[in-house]
From TrEMBL:
It comes from the Bacteria. SUPFAM superfamilies: Winged helix' DNA-binding domain. It holds the Pfam family PadR. Residues 16-90 form the Transcription regulator PadR N-terminal domain. Gene3D superfamilies: Winged helix-like DNA-binding domain superfamily/Winged helix DNA-binding domain (1.10.10.10). This is PadR family transcriptional regulator. It comes from Saccharothrix yanglingensis.
């Protein structure tokens, strides 16, 4: 299953901020973590991640620095700032409202049936 681009775009900021709230990280490791957490459902590219990281840096939500690890090339590491943690908290609040509303919509008037089996055709 491929996740729609608009869902990927909408969820990208809280995912990256959440990962960086766990620990500082660099681009490839962030991509790998997204893939692991999604069970392979979200296979982000560098073309999605790096513009997002640069935007988050411009907004002051993340900071970066170059680090060298013995035997490896230098990598640009990103870390979440206090502003980024505040943004993450707000994003969590907003996503909780969306998820809870979707659960209610999918539950429908007859109980939890729609949560178990979504219709395959006709009206969704």
């Amino acid at each position: 299953m491929k996740v729609a681009k608009d869902l990927v775009a909408a969820s990208a900021t809280p995912m990256v901020l959440g990962i960086l709230a766990e620990e500082d990280s660099y681009g490839y490791a962030i991509l790998k973590r997204i893939n692991e957490l999604s069970g392979g459902e979200l296979d982000w590219t560098e073309g999605l991640l790096y513009p997002l990281l640069h935007r988050l840096e411009r907004l002051g939500h993340v900071e970066s620095d170059w680090r060298s690890v013995a035997g490896e090339r230098r990598r640009k590491y990103y870390r979440v700032t206090d502003s980024g943690l505040a943004e993450l908290a707000e994003q969590r609040r907003q996503w909780a409202a969306v998820v809870n509303t979707l659960k209610e919509v999918w539950r429908g008037p007859d109980g939890p049936g729609l949560l178990v089996a979504m219709p395959t055709g006709g009206r969704a």
